[in-house]
Design a protein that fits this description.
globular, alpha/beta, 7-stranded mixed sheet
Length: 138
Protein backbone atom coordinates (compact mmCIF):
# COMPACT_ATOMS: atom_id res chain seq x y z
CA UNK A 1 0.00 0.00 0.00
CA UNK A 2 1.41 3.38 -1.00
CA UNK A 3 2.40 5.80 1.73
CA UNK A 4 0.56 8.60 -0.09
CA UNK A 5 -2.80 6.90 0.51
CA UNK A 6 -2.04 5.48 3.98
CA UNK A 7 -4.28 7.95 5.86
CA UNK A 8 -7.10 7.87 3.29
CA UNK A 9 -7.32 4.08 3.24
CA UNK A 10 -7.69 3.80 7.03
CA UNK A 11 -10.90 5.83 7.25
CA UNK A 12 -14.52 4.73 7.05
CA UNK A 13 -15.46 7.88 5.12
CA UNK A 14 -13.92 8.98 1.82
CA UNK A 15 -13.85 12.69 1.02
CA UNK A 16 -13.66 13.12 -2.75
CA UNK A 17 -12.99 16.00 -5.16
CA UNK A 18 -13.61 15.78 -8.91
CA UNK A 19 -11.28 17.42 -11.41
CA UNK A 20 -12.54 19.18 -14.51
CA UNK A 21 -11.08 16.39 -16.64
CA UNK A 22 -12.98 13.68 -14.72
CA UNK A 23 -16.27 15.54 -15.24
CA UNK A 24 -15.41 15.95 -18.95
CA UNK A 25 -14.85 12.19 -19.24
CA UNK A 26 -18.31 11.48 -17.80
CA UNK A 27 -19.83 14.02 -20.21
CA UNK A 28 -17.98 12.49 -23.19
CA UNK A 29 -19.51 9.12 -22.36
CA UNK A 30 -23.08 10.48 -22.11
CA UNK A 31 -24.42 9.10 -25.44
CA UNK A 32 -23.21 5.61 -24.73
CA UNK A 33 -23.82 5.13 -21.02
CA UNK A 34 -26.52 7.44 -19.65
CA UNK A 35 -30.05 8.44 -20.58
CA UNK A 36 -29.50 11.73 -18.77
CA UNK A 37 -26.56 13.21 -16.95
CA UNK A 38 -26.60 15.78 -14.18
CA UNK A 39 -24.28 16.66 -11.32
CA UNK A 40 -26.19 14.38 -8.96
CA UNK A 41 -25.76 11.43 -11.36
CA UNK A 42 -21.99 12.03 -11.59
CA UNK A 43 -21.72 12.22 -7.80
CA UNK A 44 -23.76 9.01 -7.47
CA UNK A 45 -21.57 7.16 -9.97
CA UNK A 46 -18.37 8.23 -8.21
CA UNK A 47 -19.82 7.31 -4.79
CA UNK A 48 -20.91 3.86 -5.96
CA UNK A 49 -17.56 3.11 -7.61
CA UNK A 50 -15.60 4.15 -4.51
CA UNK A 51 -17.93 2.37 -2.10
CA UNK A 52 -18.38 -0.92 -3.99
CA UNK A 53 -15.17 -1.20 -6.01
CA UNK A 54 -11.68 -2.64 -5.75
CA UNK A 55 -8.48 -0.61 -5.54
CA UNK A 56 -4.85 -0.89 -6.56
CA UNK A 57 -2.18 1.61 -5.45
CA UNK A 58 0.81 2.28 -7.68
CA UNK A 59 3.16 5.02 -6.57
CA UNK A 60 1.21 8.25 -6.21
CA UNK A 61 -1.87 6.96 -8.05
CA UNK A 62 -4.75 4.84 -6.89
CA UNK A 63 -6.96 2.98 -9.36
CA UNK A 64 -10.47 2.20 -8.12
CA UNK A 65 -12.43 -0.06 -10.42
CA UNK A 66 -15.68 -1.92 -10.83
CA UNK A 67 -16.92 -4.18 -13.61
CA UNK A 68 -17.59 -1.16 -15.85
CA UNK A 69 -15.41 1.80 -14.77
CA UNK A 70 -11.98 2.67 -13.44
CA UNK A 71 -11.26 5.92 -11.59
CA UNK A 72 -7.68 7.19 -11.61
CA UNK A 73 -7.16 9.06 -8.34
CA UNK A 74 -4.58 11.12 -6.52
CA UNK A 75 -4.49 12.43 -2.96
CA UNK A 76 -4.49 16.02 -1.74
CA UNK A 77 -5.05 17.36 1.80
CA UNK A 78 -6.39 14.01 2.98
CA UNK A 79 -8.92 13.84 0.16
CA UNK A 80 -9.20 11.54 -2.84
CA UNK A 81 -8.97 13.53 -6.07
CA UNK A 82 -10.58 11.81 -9.06
CA UNK A 83 -8.39 12.76 -12.02
CA UNK A 84 -9.92 10.78 -14.86
CA UNK A 85 -12.34 7.99 -15.73
CA UNK A 86 -11.44 4.95 -17.85
CA UNK A 87 -13.40 2.03 -19.20
CA UNK A 88 -12.65 -1.11 -17.24
CA UNK A 89 -11.22 -2.68 -20.41
CA UNK A 90 -8.57 0.08 -20.55
CA UNK A 91 -7.30 -0.83 -17.07
CA UNK A 92 -5.24 -3.96 -16.68
CA UNK A 93 -4.24 -3.63 -13.07
CA UNK A 94 -4.25 -7.14 -11.75
CA UNK A 95 -5.97 -8.09 -8.56
CA UNK A 96 -6.90 -5.41 -6.05
CA UNK A 97 -8.40 -5.13 -2.60
CA UNK A 98 -11.96 -4.17 -1.65
CA UNK A 99 -12.39 -0.48 -0.92
CA UNK A 100 -12.73 0.25 2.81
CA UNK A 101 -15.18 3.16 2.56
CA UNK A 102 -18.82 2.70 3.50
CA UNK A 103 -19.61 6.42 3.11
CA UNK A 104 -18.41 8.67 0.31
CA UNK A 105 -18.74 12.46 0.42
CA UNK A 106 -18.22 14.28 -2.88
CA UNK A 107 -16.97 17.78 -2.04
CA UNK A 108 -17.55 20.77 -4.28
CA UNK A 109 -14.37 21.72 -6.05
CA UNK A 110 -12.64 24.99 -5.09
CA UNK A 111 -13.11 26.22 -8.67
CA UNK A 112 -16.86 26.77 -8.42
CA UNK A 113 -17.78 27.25 -12.08
CA UNK A 114 -15.82 24.44 -13.69
CA UNK A 115 -18.78 22.05 -14.07
CA UNK A 116 -20.80 24.77 -15.80
CA UNK A 117 -17.92 25.49 -18.20
CA UNK A 118 -17.60 21.79 -19.09
CA UNK A 119 -21.31 21.53 -19.75
CA UNK A 120 -21.41 24.70 -21.85
CA UNK A 121 -18.47 23.51 -23.91
CA UNK A 122 -19.69 19.97 -24.57
CA UNK A 123 -23.46 20.30 -24.44
CA UNK A 124 -24.19 23.92 -25.25
CA UNK A 125 -26.47 24.32 -22.24
CA UNK A 126 -26.36 26.22 -18.98
CA UNK A 127 -26.25 24.31 -15.72
CA UNK A 128 -28.40 25.09 -12.75
CA UNK A 129 -27.99 22.88 -9.73
CA UNK A 130 -30.02 19.71 -10.07
CA UNK A 131 -30.87 20.28 -13.72
CA UNK A 132 -30.02 17.95 -16.58
CA UNK A 133 -26.54 18.58 -17.95
CA UNK A 134 -26.87 16.61 -21.17
CA UNK A 135 -29.70 14.68 -22.69
CA UNK A 136 -28.87 11.94 -25.20
CA UNK A 137 -28.46 12.96 -28.81
CA UNK A 138 -31.48 12.09 -31.01
Amino acid sequence: MGMVFEEVLHRDVAFVELTKHAVERFVWRRDRDYSKLDLQTIQGLVSNILRDGWYVVRGDKMYVYTKRYCLVCGESRGRIVVKTVLSRSQFRGGRGRRTPWRRVVVIESPSEGFVKSVVDEFCGRSLRKGRVICAPSP
